[in-house]
Amino acid sequence: MGADEIEEYAEAIDMIQSPHKVTITIMCRDLADMDFGGKSDPYAVVYLKGEKDKKWCKLGSTATMPENLDPNFVEEFEINYLFERNQIIRVEIYDEDDPQRLNDDLIGNFDCPLNKLLTSNNQTIKDNLRMKSGKSDIRGRIYIIANSVSESNDIVKMDIVCRILDKKKKDKKGFLCFCRPPEDNPFLVIEKQGPSEGERRHNWVEVFRSEQ
Q1: Which residue from 2, 46, 113, 165 has the highest number of Cβ atoms inside 10 Å of its Cβ?
Q2: What is the DSSP letter of 30?
Q3: CA distances (Å), origin 73, targets 186, 204, 208
Q4: b or e along 86-117 (b: 16 or more beta carbons within 10 Å of the residue's beta carbon)?
Q5: Domain ranges in the chain?
Q6: What are residue 128's DSSP bridge partners?
Q7: Which one has a higher pLDDT value, 133 or 161?
Q8: Phi, psi of 114 (to 5 degrees)
Q9: Confidence class of residue 43 from pLDDT cuts 50, 70 and 90?
Q10: In the sheet where 203-209 sits, what is the strand order?
Q11: Model pLDDT, residue 179
Q12: What's the whole-model pTM score?
């Protein structure tokens, strides 16, 4: 093996062994209603289990979505993906009853190998939420969406100006949504494209909302 081949081989091994950063976001549909006389107030908790230590590491949790059975959680969770390593993601969905989150009801959970998610169509997995005990009852549907993190640190600055916005109307075309509520106080929403759902071509997930 020549010097050039050895160098190329070393670079390939380094790429395989080096972590690749990805982010995941969570969506749910048709969640079980855990509250009497109202809808569930769901939030998600995300864990990762590595191949070596076999322990679950908490990556974080989302904000609570009050009375929402179809939440699009906006938080992103960053993971160092290691090629050909058995890394497992666990997502637990709870109904918040306690502001301290100490005695909340578990709606359901879902485990997914990270490499399966990254090799799925559009890097998106859809499945059913179930209880930890493995009961057959379905508690809703969950979507996990992965995105690769660019190594670029470039910053894009945009100045956005609107004129004569119609009241009570929303322009949902594209990734910018301009809103003008009845109280005449416009604000800006930026959304990213999520997985397709049913007959809808796109499902848009809110990632930013300006102050009103």
Answers
A1: 46
A2: S
A3: 23, 11, 12
A4: ebbbbbbbbbbeeeeeeebebbbbbebebbeb
A5: 3-148, 155-212
A6: 141
A7: 161
A8: -65, -40
A9: very high
A10: 176-179, 187-194, 203-209
A11: 59
A12: 0.67
Of the candidates 121, 120, 138, 117, which has an alpha carbon nearest to the alpha carbon of residue 129?
138
Residue 168 and residue 174 in contact, taking contact as beta carbons nearer than 8 Å = no
The token pair that represents 140 in the structure block: 């809703």
**Percent with pLDDT over 90 in the chain:** 38
Helix (H, G, I), strand (E, B) or coil at 111: strand
pLDDT over 80 (residue 140): yes
**What are the φ/ψ torsions at residue 113 (nearest 5 degrees)?**
-65, 135
Q: How confident is the model at residue 23 (pLDDT cuts 50, 70, 90)?
A: very high
Contact (Cβ atoms closer than 8 angstroms) between residue 113 and residue 86? yes
| 165 token code pair | 């916005």
The overall average pLDDT reported for the chain is 78
Report whether 110 contacts 143 (CB < 8 A): no
> How far is it, in rounded angstroms, from Cα 96 to Cα 102?
9
- Interacting residues of 13 by C-beta distance below 8 A, sequence separation 6+: none
